[in-house]
Amino acid sequence: MARAGLTAERVTIVGAELADDVGLDRVTMSQVARRLGVKDASLYAHVRSLEDLRGRIALLAADEKTIRIAEATAGRAGKDALVAFAHAWREYAHRYPGRYMATQTPIQIDPELAARAPGPRRAVELTYGMLRGYGLAEPDLTDAVRLLRSTFHGFVALEAAGGFAHARSPQRSWDRALDALNTLLEHWPPSREGDSS
To answer: How far is CA 25 from CA 51, 72, 132, in A?
Structure first.
């Protein structure tokens, strides 16, 4: 019998908080149950497995991160939008490291849950919309999306791991990286003729 007040949403939030505290890869169902003050078996009335819980955390995080990016970029275009987008991404990764990793880790997500979750779709719309402001079209849009994701994620992952030991402030490097990305996007090299893959 499910404990009164325990829901899939509550289990997901506690799992997300635990992921932020200890790391996504260290979350277990037993730890989540302890935080909720229930037996492990009680969780399975709400989530099917640890992988299901991780998928739910990923969808929660995608929604949260997308809302922050949408708010930051509203009414902005060009470099202003790019910088606001990047700062919102990085701030989310700093504040919610476990949840953030859930958005960057391949996780098997229940297709029904994924279909109802607006975050991932909205993230794609926001990213492509911002890049269309630079006059990009396919296949360049997809290439630019991958470049941004690689740059943003690479930077925050190295930063979180203590990978920037040089005396120069990581913030200054971040700002220069955004300057460089903006310049590249404004002067995007044309695709080679016949490259449609």
So the answer is: 11, 30, 36
DSSP annotation of 5 reads T
Helices (H) and strands (E) in the chain, counts: 10, 0
24 and 101 Cβ atoms separated by less than 8 Å? yes
Spans of the chain, pLDDT less than 50: 1-2
- Give kind and range of the element (H or E) at residue 100: helix 97-104
Residue in 153, 52, 55 with CA at minimum distance from that of residue 104: 153
pLDDT tens-digit readout, 167-193:
899 999 999 999 999 999 999 998 775
What is the pTM for the complete model shown? 0.90
Q: How far apart are alpha carbons 141 and 42 in whole angstroms?
A: 45
